[in-house]
Amino acid sequence: MKKFGKCIVVLQYPVMWSLVILVIFFSHSVMSQDATKNELPNFDSPAVFQVTQPVDHGEGPMWDGRKNLLYFVDIHAGRVLSYNYDSKKVSFVTLKGDVSSVIPAKKNENILVLGLDRSLMAIEWDGQNDVKSKRVLTTVAPQFPQSRFNDGKADKQGRLWVGTMGFENPQTRQLAPNQGALYKITKDTFLSPKIEIAPVNISNGLTWNKANNKMYYIDTPSKKVMEYDYDDEKGDISNPRVSVDIEKFPSVTGSPDGMTIDNDDNLWIALFGGGSIIKVNPVTGQLLQVVPIPARDVTSVMFGGPNLDILFVTTSRRGLTDSERKTSNAAGSVFGVTNLRTKGSPAHFVDLVDNARRANILAEILINTNELFAQPLPNEVSNALVQSTEASQNYVVQQPQRTSEKEDVPAFWGAILNTIRNFF
């Protein structure tokens, strides 16, 4: 009778129990939907695509929107490569030496200015066929014959900012410290490239903000990005400060390599040995985003594509063992990153030369005699350049008193060289 009585009580409240059942069902349904939602991929997040086949040591991506070409280099193979965005075809030419910093000319889109070992060269190449002509513009750092050019870019006025690095032993991968510098080169200073920052270990990433009053610069072993006040009219830098310190980001590893900037004035930095690129606010030094790349050694970045919203990323496989190459078989490729919700600005081109015709024998001899007239460096600079201190503690030393390696070229020879240079 008691059981029967309880059943009667239950039956007296059918509406209440119906509501309880509905609440339980609805709660389970919502939880299931949330779980399913969390499991679905987010297709609005960054997407990484392999754009090219691997090379040994890819570097220096440079987008030329006039041709829809992405230039890049395979440094130690001496190859200058182009990726045609429209045809998806990769072409290349091979030069003798370590090649870097390929930058098209402002007035002639078939002229490329590049570093070849420690010489600056202009070549005439349309990005597809053979090189038509080439010409050495200048050679730097006679005191460090095994150093070479590395990263470089043109500023808004077409001046070339390009740096060097010390000798890197191919077997031990040890770097000769303090043998590099950052140079500023204009059409009037081929014979006396101005040293802006020295000593430098591995001169790397370089970019300017949207207002063009700040310049950012990386000496890789320092693991820092330096900020300078920038005078666009004069091309002068001043007031250095640490903008970004990679060692303050516990979630990433590696060393800062190449660098670019987006329209929001955020820096995008390649992390060599870190398998990623990072987005950083250079004003606050805050890490904003990390994008993994399927290669351990990420070398540089550049916005490109018709809308400048693809971040092209170069990588290297040079330091990988045979077994590592098998498990990282895309290392050395150029990658494209999309869905970044930002874009870059058109690249600046160099305004140094309009052709790459080789001068006659006399001109070639004279153009390259500048090293014969190189004056000894001041003692304080020489000592700074050869000291064996920790690379990470000597990331930048300004030497304003040292304006040129070769500023004391005899007037007679200087006049002849300038005449020949202008003629050819």
Automatic annotation (TrEMBL):
Residues 58-316 form the SMP-30/Gluconolactonase/LRE-like region domain. PANTHER family: REGUCALCIN. The keyword Cytoplasm applies. Keywords: Calcium, Cytoplasm, Hydrolase, Metal-binding, Zinc. One of its GO terms (molecular function) is gluconolactonase activity. It comes from Sitophilus oryzae. Substrate binds at R148, N150, E168. Belongs to the SMP-30/CGR1 family. Binds 1 divalent metal cation per subunit. One of its GO terms (cellular component) is cytoplasm. Its EC number is 3.1.1.17. Its cofactor is Zn(2+); Mn(2+); Ca(2+); Mg(2+). It comes from the Eukaryota. Gene3D superfamilies: TolB, C-terminal domain. It catalyses: D-glucono-1,5-lactone + H2O = D-gluconate + H(+). One of its GO terms (biological process) is L-ascorbic acid biosynthetic process. The keyword Secreted does not apply. It is an enzyme of class 3 (hydrolase). Its main location: cytoplasm. The active site is at D257. Pfam families: SGL. InterPro entries: 6-blade_b-propeller_TolB-like (IPR011042), SGL (IPR013658), SMP-30 (IPR005511). This is Regucalcin. A divalent metal cation binds at E59, N204, D257. It is found in: Cytoplasm.
